[in-house]
Write a sequence for this structure.
């Protein structure tokens, strides 16, 4: 029984931040593709400045506004949608849905909440109700209690036993937690905690620190049919936020009985909440017996929901869209690339996926860098291999931001510090684990200190042994074989042996060590036809066939960090679309599971491979692309790739090294597009820094058009056009000016328009400048129609892009940040009177 | 606080098993009609009918019986049958049919006795069988069910509550102390 | 690390590294795509005379658990996997995979492209294979010359009856190569179980006064068993509730006039949705099947088709119209595989209880 929907309001995820990156935009994008098939009119609200989804919807149906309760209410009043899809809005979206339900707005406007009924939503969002619901279906939750004095606390402990965690109740951002193993520690903790809370209440809960954290993602239809998409295992124990943990898919250290119990529990929870769509459930699994607790229930899109889909190749977002609309699993037809696979087959994997988080500590140094219950990572990368070791090493070199193919060494850390970091892990967690093994710590000892299952140490140990062998036997065929087997790319071998990569390639040729690509598909090889997503492995059968048509390879940006990364993902996605429109078969290479640029609809083929020279060259060797596009300023990589003269490489935006400007003095800019000797003015921008700073590194807001545009814009554009040398500058170029607001402008430099601002220009001017750039460098630009489409000085509204910083999430006292510390940006428009 | 004795899955399976047993006992579905007793028995009867439809591809008539006026524990004035039957929806003849009465809980047997009277007032069926989701014991009348989902021995102080998703937004049987 | 070979009847040879026993063996090669429970799979007697290819890339990670054996003396002929971890970790996992395979003389090969082998088998169908030291003509000659026994049930089933006492319903389990998961589920439900040999007659079974009878799983083709087994089934199915699983299901079908076909590619996994026809619901379960009931051969006056596999259309469940006798092709005990359908054991116990109730006069 499907729900008949004419108009649906889809909630966006908002700007990237700690807790969510581009996965919500990716989910909304995929969902849109599914919804279009139903013929429903789609209204979308999101202020993420780098949203790909908003580009795909009629501008009239997009509300570029903060995804907030108030804004959604206003939109409902205007649009009268008959349904709301909130799951793509993440937790924020669900909270808004809850407010809409509780305030009676859904009922009075006759709006259906898709995915979960309001009564069931309350069971999830209200913590006490969730506990009651889970208890009623015999699922265990961690016991907790609010206590007002020591006696109440002792009563509680007598019931549940030590260890317990004590937290003061306060409205401020105090996140101190005390783990107590005995009465003395408890008394001390209560003493301190009661002093910190003005309402004289503490929360006390059963401690499960050290338990395994297991995550399950399932889907359910209105008929009650359920599929488990994937189980995932956090390598790090409970006590380290799952978002900061290294995650393995499939689960590695659960026996069948334990795994099936959690699967069944997930299904019972989904049944008790009547979910139609996706649900992510987290569990704490005891290491010594079959006991487990349910720790979190998320019936909406989360990072790990998306990871489950990426890991298995199951089209989760697509399918769940139809489930939310009331379709049964048996009624959903998959896109043709899935061949014989059916929406209601349970995914099964024949590879291993490892996700490693990325932390912002290089750019924000003055915060507590320990990994604990507070999430701090801003992105992640995945490594996929046929063996656990291969997946680990690939994810590790994907997580290195240097494109050089070696892993950083932590051998200078002293023994005490190693022990300290084993107990109180930092971002270098996995390197420290390897270093400790290297120094001869026993596996039992390490497992005891870290609460990490011994299995992982066995695997890391094998990696170390392989590395030793490879280092000690340079340039031997056996070393290459072992290196390949354990996931060391050719680039890594070249670095370890200090030889040019071509030497290794030559050896591969001689010994016939050819890389093979395996499909990531949900049937583990049951069907011979494969999907279009691949990873590498050195085995017998290669499943990736090069295109016979002309093709283009786009080298993705990898995991999100601070700085222009979500903008780069948007940029990359637009490049893919442009290439497609220009008639190329598009191939993307990326490692960020949350990237929009990896959504299946955006390219013809996807490789999930480390963005490293060796891996890139292997793909180029197989695919022989007509053009390779490298988005973003990656000097090392572009230099390396340019060594290979036969490659047609386009770096976008073009290398900034020719830029000359005074970064401390810029308030205003004129953006120009230059093709040959023709200059097309794009628009003008005002930079707004904190406290009137004119430093380009401290810009918070970008405004288009510039301040005082009515009086000053024309003359500034004329000046910029006059000062540009078209022999030297091509494409999108920014001429910088400094002013005190007195209509006097001093030119302070010229630079290519950066990725972030190119995205901004595309959003504000209505011309896709990324598409224009791609066409320009492919020699396919039609200047006549561009000139017709673009009327530069007609400003009807002002656009503002505001940078967001993760200072509050990281508990940093800072308020002003540099462009390198941006985590995301929001966009807003204001019409001129 | 209630304790779930049958969850959704168990309830579904119990109804499935009852359906198979009905076919088994009646050697098919010929002349079969289902009559659900008041609120929840009606939904259960419908679910059994859905199952028979799936299994045998036949549509079995389902009637609805409100036996409030037949209860011997409720005092009422002498009424005509017309008044008594006012809340029933049985749009088929039961003459010569194999009637399956469906109820959620079998307890003292008084409800079933009333239902039997009501059905007999409608005509002369070939046979009447009783299907219940739960038999909790403590019979006060010589009545037994032919098809039982689950025997749940209970004390008289306890209560058995059956939830059906059609009206209760969940499927479950709870024992309430 | 010794290099050894997996050779197939069609002439293919795969070089890999040895683990477990170094025996040279021959069996039918099958791929299993279940992601958990390598221990349950290897120890299941259904794999008698078979070489198991795991599509799950890594096994052995959790050692061997005392509570998860599906038989005491496993009789698989080999284990093929991409990688294995030889771990015997904490207190309830004391034996490692390598040690276990050595104990039971089962050879293993790792470091082979199991995904390619899976594709190969999907293309070419079932065939014989050997695990050998050298992949030469002699090895292939041996492979071609080997005739696999058709007396699999007799080789793995118990020759003598034995009890598994408890205080609940009296259940007779007819052993065709029983997996322990069935006993475990009956034990959870307090059944007083007697396991009897596959060739027990109906009289011998009924003499035990069963409340219910289980026909167990087992290896090979049901056609290899004598007609006396089918006679036993037709006799007992009218006398006591009957639950048949796997090979038992195939025999139940044969006894009621249906025919059995051999699948061109055996299906071993838990990813196929199974539809329960009466409710239209789908669920998942461990499936290990080389044979299937031919739906066209079913006498609908006698049997209901209760379950079907939605991917390959095979019959997955039957029920007799006249008696409380039902069967499933898959393994509802979830060892390994999802426990979505473990409630079938509750049904069976409930049917036995109802029958007992209706035989006494307590109301």
């Amino acid at each position: 029984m499907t729900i008949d929907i004419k108009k649906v309001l889809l909630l966006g995820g908002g700007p990237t931040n700690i807790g969510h990156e581009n996965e919500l935009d990716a989910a909304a994008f995929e969902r849109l593709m599914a919804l279009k098939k139903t013929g429903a009119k789609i209204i979308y609200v999101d202020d993420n400045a780098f949203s790909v989804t908003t580009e795909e919807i009629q501008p009239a149906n997009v509300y570029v506004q903060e995804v907030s309760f108030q804004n959604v209410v206003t939109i409902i009043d205007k649009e009268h949608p008959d349904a709301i899809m909130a799951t793509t809005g993440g937790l924020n979206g669900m909270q808004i849905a809850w407010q809409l339900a509780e305030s009676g707005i859904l009922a009075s406007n006759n709006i259906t909440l898709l995915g979960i009924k309001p009564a069931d939503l309350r069971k999830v969002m209200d913590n006490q109700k969730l506990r009651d619901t889970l208890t009623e279906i015999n699922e265990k939750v961690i016991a907790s209690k609010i206590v007002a004095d020591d006696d109440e606390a002792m009563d509680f402990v007598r019931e549940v036993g030590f260890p317990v965690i004590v937290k003061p109740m306060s409205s401020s951002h105090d996140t101190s937690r005390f783990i107590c193993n005995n009465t003395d520690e408890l008394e001390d903790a209560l003493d301190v905690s009661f002093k910190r809370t003005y309402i004289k209440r503490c929360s006390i809960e059963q401690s499960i620190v050290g338990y395994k954290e297991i995550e399950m993602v399932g889907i359910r239809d209105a008929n009650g049919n359920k599929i488990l998409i994937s189980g995932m295992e956090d390598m790090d124990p409970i006590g380290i936020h799952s978002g900061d943990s290294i995650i393995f898919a499939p689960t590695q250290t659960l026996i069948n009985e334990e795994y099936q119990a959690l699967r069944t529990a997930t299904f019972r929870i989904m049944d008790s909440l009547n979910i139609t769509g996706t649900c992510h459930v987290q569990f704490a699994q005891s290491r010594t017996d079959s006991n487990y607790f349910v720790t979190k229930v998320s019936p909406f899109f989360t990072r790990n929901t998306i990871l489950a889909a990426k890991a298995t190749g199951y089209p989760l977002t697509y399918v769940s869209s139809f489930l939310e609309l009331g379709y049964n699993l048996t009624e959903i037809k998959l896109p043709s690339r899935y061949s014989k696979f059916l929406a209601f087959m349970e995914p099964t994997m024949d590879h291993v996926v490892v996700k490693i988080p990325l932390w912002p500590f290089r750019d924000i140094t003055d915060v507590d860098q320990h990994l604990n219950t507070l999430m701090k990572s801003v992105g992640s990368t995945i490594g996929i291999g046929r063996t656990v070791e291969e997946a680990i090493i690939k994810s590790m070199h994907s997580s290195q931001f240097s494109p050089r193919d070696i892993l950083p060494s932590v051998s200078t850390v002293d023994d005490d510090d190693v022990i300290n970091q084993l107990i109180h892990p930092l971002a270098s967690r996995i390197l420290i684990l390897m270093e400790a093994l290297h120094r001869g710590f026993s596996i039992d000892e390490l497992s005891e200190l870290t609460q990490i299952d011994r299995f992982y140490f066995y695997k890391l140990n094998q990696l170390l042994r392989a590395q030793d062998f490879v280092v000690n036997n340079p340039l031997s065929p056996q070393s290459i074989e072992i290196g390949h087997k354990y996931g060391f790319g050719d680039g890594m071998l070249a670095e370890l042996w200090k030889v040019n990569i071509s030497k290794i390639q030559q050896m591969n040729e001689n010994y016939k060590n050819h890389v093979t690509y395996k499909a990531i598909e949900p049937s583990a090889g049951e069907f011979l036809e494969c999907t279009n997503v691949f990873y590498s492995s050195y085995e017998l059968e290669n499943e990736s066939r090069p295109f016979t048509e002309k093709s283009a390879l786009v080298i993705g940006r990898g995991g999100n960090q601070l700085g222009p990364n979500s903008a780069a993902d948007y940029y990359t996605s637009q490049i893919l679309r442009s290439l497609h429109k220009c008639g190329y078969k598009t191939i993307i290479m990326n490692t960020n599971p949350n990237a929009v640029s990896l959504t299946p609809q955006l390219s013809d083929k996807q490789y999930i491979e480390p963005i490293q020279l060796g891996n890139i060259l292997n793909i180029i060797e197989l695919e022989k692309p007509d053009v390779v596009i490298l988005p973003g300023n990656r000097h090392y990589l572009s230099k390396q790739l340019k060594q290979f003269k036969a490659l047609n490489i386009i770096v976008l935006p073009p290398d900034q090294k020719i830029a000359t400007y005074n970064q401390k003095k810029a308030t205003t800019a004129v953006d120009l597009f230059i093709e040959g000797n023709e200059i097309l003015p794009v628009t003008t921008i005002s930079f707004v820094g904190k406290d009137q700073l004119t430093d380009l590194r401290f810009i918070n807001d970008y405004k288009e058009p510039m301040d005082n545009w009515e009086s000053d814009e024309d003359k500034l554009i004329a000046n910029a056009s006059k000062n540009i040398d078209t022999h030297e500058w091509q494409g999108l170029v920014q001429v910088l000016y400094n002013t005190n607001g007195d209509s006097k402008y001093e030119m302070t430099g010229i630079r290519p328009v950066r990725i972030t601002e190119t995205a901004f220009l595309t959003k504000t001017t209505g011309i896709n400048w990324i598409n224009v750039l791609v066409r320009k460098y492919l020699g396919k630009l039609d200047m006549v129609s561009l000139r017709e489409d673009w009327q530069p000085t007609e400003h009807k509204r002002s656009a503002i892009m505001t940078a967001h910083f993760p200072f509050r999430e990281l508990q940093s006292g800072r308020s002003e940040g540099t462009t390198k510390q941006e985590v995301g940006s929001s966009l807003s428009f204001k019409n001129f009177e | 606080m209630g304790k779930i004795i049958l969850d959704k899955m168990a309830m579904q399976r119990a109804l499935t098993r009852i359906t198979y047993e009905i076919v088994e006992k009646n050697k098919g579905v010929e002349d079969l009609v289902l009559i659900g007793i008041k609120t929840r028995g009606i939904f259960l009867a419908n679910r059994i009918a859905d199952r028979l439809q799936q299994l045998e591809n036949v549509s079995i008539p389902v009637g609805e019986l409100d036996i409030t006026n037949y209860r011997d524990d409720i005092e009422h004035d002498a009424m005509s049958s017309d008044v008594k039957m006012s809340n029933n929806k049985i749009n088929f003849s039961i003459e010569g049919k194999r009637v399956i009465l469906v109820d959620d809980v079998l307890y003292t047997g008084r409800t079933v006795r009333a239902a039997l009277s009501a059905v007999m007032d409608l005509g002369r069926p070939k046979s009447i069988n009783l299907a219940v989701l739960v038999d909790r014991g403590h019979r006060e009348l010589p009545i037994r069910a032919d098809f039982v989902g689950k025997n749940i021995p209970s004390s008289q102080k306890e209560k058995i509550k059956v939830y059906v998703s059609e009206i209760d937004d969940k499927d479950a049987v709870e024992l309430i102390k | 690390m010794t290099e050894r070979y997996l050779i197939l009847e069609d002439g293919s040879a795969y070089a890999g590294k040895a683990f477990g026993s170094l025996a040279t063996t021959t069996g039918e090669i099958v791929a299993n795509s279940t992601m958990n429970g390598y221990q349950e799979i290897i120890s299941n007697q259904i794999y008698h005379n078979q070489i198991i290819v795991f599509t799950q890339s890594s096994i052995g990670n959790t050692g061997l658990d005392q509570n998860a054996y599906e038989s005491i003396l496993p009789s698989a002929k080999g284990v093929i996997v991409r990688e294995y971890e030889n771990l015997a970790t904490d207190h309830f996992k004391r034996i490692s995979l390598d040690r276990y395979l050595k104990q039971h003389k089962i050879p293993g090969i790792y470091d082979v492209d199991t995904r390619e082998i899976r594709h190969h088998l999907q293309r070419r169908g079932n065939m014989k294979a050997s695990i050998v030291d050298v992949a030469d003509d002699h090895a292939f000659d041996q492979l071609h010359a080997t005739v696999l026994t058709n007396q699999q049930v007799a080789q793995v089933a118990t020759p003598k009856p034995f009890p598994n006492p408890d205080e609940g319903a009296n259940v007779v389990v007819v052993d065709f190569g029983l997996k322990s998961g069935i006993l475990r589920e009956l034990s959870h439900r307090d059944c007083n179980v007697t396991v009897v040999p596959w060739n027990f007659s109906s009289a011998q079974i009924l003499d035990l006064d069963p409340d219910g009878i289980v026909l167990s799983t087992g290896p090979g083709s049901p056609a290899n068993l004598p007609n006396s087994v089918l006679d036993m089934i037709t006799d007992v199915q009218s006398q006591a509730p009957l639950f048949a699983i796997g090979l038992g299901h195939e025999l139940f079908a044969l006894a009621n006039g249906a025919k059995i076909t051999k699948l061109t590619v055996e299906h071993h996994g838990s990813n196929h949705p199974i539809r329960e026809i009466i409710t239209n619901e789908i669920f998942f379960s461990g499936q290990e099947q080389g044979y299937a009931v031919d739906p066209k051969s079913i006498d609908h006056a006698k049997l209901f088709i209760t379950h079907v596999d939605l991917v390959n259309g095979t019959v997955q469940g039957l029920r007799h119209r006249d008696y409380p006798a039902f069967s499933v092709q898959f393994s509802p005990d979830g060892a390994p595989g999802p426990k979505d359908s473990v409630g079938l054991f509750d049904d069976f116990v409930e049917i036995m209880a109802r029958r007992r109730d209706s035989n006494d006069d307590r109301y």
